[in-house]
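Friendly challenge for the regulars: who can give me the structure tokens for this chain first? No prize, just bragging rights.
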Amino acid sequence: MNIMKQHTFKILALMLIAALLQVRPALAQSAAIDLCATSGTIALPGTAALTIWGYTLGDCTTGLPLTAPGGPTIVVNEGDTVAITVHNNLPEATSLLLPSLAMIPDTTGIGAVASATYNFTADAPGLYLYEAGLLANAQHQVAMGLYGALVVRSATAGTAYGTSSTAFDDEAVLVLGEIDPALNNSAAPASFDMRNYAPKYFLINGKAYPDTAPIATQAGNNVLLRYVNAGLVPYSMSLLGMRQTAVAMDGSPFTYGRTVVAETIAPGQTADMIATVPAAATDGSKFALFDGNLLLHNNKTNNVTGGFGGMLTFLTVGGTPPTGDTTGPVTSNLSVSPTAVSGTVSDAATGGSNVNAAEFFIDTTGANGSGTAVAAFTPGVTVNVNGTIAPALTGSHTIYLHGMDAAGNWGAFQSVLLTNDATGPTTSALVVSPTPNNGTADLFVSATADDSATGGSAIAAAEYWIDTGSPSAMSVSPAAVQIASLSTTVPAATINGLTEGVHTVSVRSQDALGNWGAAVSTSLTVDKNGPATSNVNAAPNPNNGAMPINSSTPAVRVTATFVDALSKIGPECVGAAAAATGDSPVEGTNHIFIPLVTGSSDAQVYAAAAPCMMGELFIDTVGANGSGIVILPSDGSANSQTENGYADIPLGTIATLSDGNHTIYVHGQDAAGNWGPMGTTILVIDKTVPTITSVTLSANTIAFGAATVTLNVTATDGGVGLNGGQYWIDGTATPPATATAFAGTSVAINTSGLAGGVHTLFVRMKDGVSNWSAVSSATLTVVQAVNDARSITANTSGTQTSNANATAGVLTNDQPVGVAGRTAGLASAPIRTSGTGAGTITLSCPTSLGTPASPTIGGNTICTNGAYRVTLHGVGGSGNQRRASKRGTYQFTYTETLNGVSSTATVTITVN
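First reply, four minutes later:
Bragging rights claimed.
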């Protein structure tokens, strides 16, 4: 009964250790796993039960309750097709993510009391993390415990990744995590601000020391420690008394393992380490495995709560060492060829048993006994063995040989690198710079040599040559590797010695066995002459310093065409101009230093964000190459051998130039850095305004309604010549917006609509660059006689008179008013126009009113000053009859005359 109890206790203990380590047996070729995302509680040292989340095996209707955060370690085999169905027993949506596997992330999620299946193929052996997926506001789910480890078993038993360097005797999966009670005790974890996340407990496989499970092993064993950092902070896992060999990270094996005391494992990262237990370790020995930051406590906010603990466990050594011959034979004297393997296998120093078998592997070792057997031999403590390789090997390969003694112990491998290489390296990625080159700059030549696919030897040498010239050596870096960089610098003098045109640069490389590979070639353009410049123009031209190329660009635009026979035009970037002035462009921007006028003290400005220059211009005096005004490509990009370019010279600069002809010099630069010859154009500057010497009118006095007069201007210009003018009538000397433009120096002016009176005609002239003269003027008088009316009351006498003196005469309302020299004269005699009386009317100019005007019409006249006397003649025997005969309407016409110009009007006299 006691034996049964002990046996049962051992079984339960082993089950408990397996549960704590969360290691499951390997699944079938087609693996289907059900996981339940659920909640539970955990009691940690120094605290009451905390709410946790995690995964249990099953569909949420079966399985053990959740007592620790995390989930079971899922173990599948390399090549398995895996389907993981997640059943959600949580109050919020969740999903599953395997970050290192080729699986599309689920961003939709699984709702409460729902499920979803995630499919993938376990393509490669390794250690992987699975955890809650990428849903909105799901950051807390991993921290609550939704995580676990996935192990993909290698097809080569006893190894983590199918190689001898990853062989192991014992294995432990260690899922690292932490707990912040503030989050786990939160009534609504989804509302917890993860920026305040501050873990207090640090766990291995969901437990904090002293509750962590130890890792059982034996003296001399290789222990594979498989770390999965499922937490939110990094950990550096250290093994006291032993070193660890890092063999893989994130499921990717290292070509060469590295020995570490502790390796920092980032959140979400996995790491595989192998630790070898000292052969002299006695039973009961313990080796502490812990977080190297030494914060080994459980929520120790004071000296009492929680106490010593945290992320800590032990490798424990136990069991009885085997007796007899337990060590395999030693292999030595390994010799290989492309077709054969030979060596010596001896158990003399490792047990003294006969050597019964031997095998070899190529490149990768496998399980003991699965290699290629050597030829039959007679067993002995020390034997020589021979094996045949078929077909013959080419390239570089590692050959492993070991033997087995009569006790069944396989010995350690001896290995050697076999290189069968008769082909030279492949040379690629040949680059020469700068090209084109003008012979003033060294030429840098670089390439890559690769012998990994043509024999696997190290790159030993390389050489280059130009055209059919002699080869010269190149540098190889790094040394003694299969893939290396090749480089050399060809002096500028060598390039300058080449003829202008296209040359061929060739490079080849040699491996350590003396094999030269095929050469690769590229073109080098040697260009020693700059581009030709043509079609140089400046606009607007002539210019007075105030005429822009357009309304948005206050500048004179210079354009030109550049053509180069060998190179594209430009670029010459920041450097030359700035260096010439002693100033530096602003760091982080692409500026070009532009001298606007050569020799002026304030003539240099920055052209911010200017692209590489393709040419430059100078005004009047040519400066040093690269110091002129930048010419830019018209299409925005200098990328061909023919380019049109432009530069805008600010009007402020143009205004500083003197009157007369100025030469603009333009030349371009090609991609090789060559400046070409100058092209020129003449910019004419004219800032002198015209001068008006006289303004005359073809008639300066006209009658009202006259159609036109002719304006004649006499003016001179000391610059490019006159180019018309403007005139306006009346107003002020300031030109109105409605001024009328005219060509030449003479213009017919429409006067038909001018009112009577004196008018001022203003005029100004311009030259060919729109310089305006001062305003001049002339006077134009429009003569207008105005109709008049008078009223006279008839009396009973036979003869009745009424005088209109000069101030009330016919000229009173006439235009222009009050101008000296005006005269009046009778144009037609007065006549009755209404009324039936027989009375008559006569006009006269008595001396008391003025001087009679000529001519006299029917005995009627008026005074030259516009005065006149009206005489009414009555008819009848009685006074009433005479009065009645006078009544009616009478009219006569008169003329106003000024400067020989006359205007006629009518006077109406009403007799009442």
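Helices lie at 2-21, 139-144, 181-184, 492-496, 576-581, 651-654, 879-886. Residues 2-21 form the longest helix (20 residues). Your move, everyone else.
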